[in-house]
Specification:
The complex is a heterodimer.
Chain A (H helix, E strand, L loop, with lengths): L8 E5 L4 E6 L7 E8 L6 E6 L4 E2 L4 E4 L5 E6 L8 E9 L13 E6 L1
Parallel strand pairs in A: 1-9
Antiparallel strand pairs in A: 2-7, 3-4, 3-8, 5-6, 6-7, 8-9
Chain B lengths: L4 E3 L2 E4 L5 E6 L6 E8 L3 E9 L2 E4 L8 E7 L2 E6 L8 E8 L7 E2 L3 E5 L1
Parallel strand pairs in B: 2-11
Antiparallel strand pairs in B: 1-3, 3-8, 4-5, 4-9, 5-6, 7-8, 9-10, 9-11
The chains are: A mainly beta, B mainly beta.
């Protein structure tokens, strides 16, 4: 079973920041938080990952709380092309046998 | 780079027929994953390989499913005999090492009538 809890759906206006929350209250000290997204009819796409510190790349920012029990994915300026299902996943890095377990994810709808 | 290539993109077959799905991973990647996605169960990992060797096949639903990776650039997922409940989108993904980023193919949409 997925070890994360995400809202089923969220809406965001184009050009505004999209903040997608994720709860992972049972996360272990050696587990990373990953975010993937799946645009309709395509394969999932990696977005970002983090362990303790906040992370930023060209796609998004990841904010992890100090107790690591929750995190937020931030898309700073959402566009219509960001409409997708966003998956928050926790997994131990580099441990054979620990695969990505995709939950239901959050369906983000970006509208103009 | 062409990315992960899957064929066919769509497959329609009748119950009882054998189905073979194909995957070409990104050149140089040493891990290959097969996933299945349905509305009811979401995205599930079926099996993954490391250096062409199956590492974990605990997600394979039953003996009707089999997967092979004869070389580093090719893998197949076979269903024999196929059943209507096998209808799903099957994704192949590859990665270098066991890192954070898996690269997914476009998927094969399988319909079993």
């Amino acid at each position: 079973d997925a070890k994360t809890t995400q809202p089923t759906s969220m809406d965001c206006a184009e050009g505004r920041a999209a903040n997608l929350p994720c709860n992972h209250s049972t996360i272990s000290g050696n587990e990373y938080v990953y975010w993937y997204r799946q645009i309709h009819s395509q394969g999932p796409q990696y977005i970002i990952h983090g362990l303790k510190n906040n992370e930023t790349n060209e796609m998004a920012s990841l904010i992890i709380t100090e107790d690591r029990k929750s995190s937020t994915l931030i898309l700073p300026h959402a566009t219509l092309r960001d409409t997708a299902v966003y998956y928050c996943i926790v997994r131990v890095y580099n441990q054979a046998g620990t695969a990505l377990i995709f939950g239901k994810g959050t369906t983000l709808s970006v509208s103009s | 780079d062409a990315g992960v290539i899957q064929s066919p993109r769509h497959e329609v077959t009748e119950m009882g027929q054998e189905v073979t799905l194909r995957c070409k991973p990104i050149s140089g990647h040493d891990y290959l994953f097969w996933y299945r996605q349905t509305m009811m169960r979401g995205l599930e990992l079926l099996i993954y390989f490391n250096n062409n060797v199956p590492i974990d096949d605990s997600g394979m639903p039953e003996d009707r499913f089999s997967a092979k990776m004869p070389n580093a650039s090719f893998s197949t997922l076979k269903i024999q005999p196929s059943e209507p409940r096998d209808s799903a989108v099957y994704f192949c993904a590859s990665s270098l090492g066991y890192p954070h980023e898996q690269f997914f193919g476009p998927g094969t949409r399988l319909t079993v009538l």
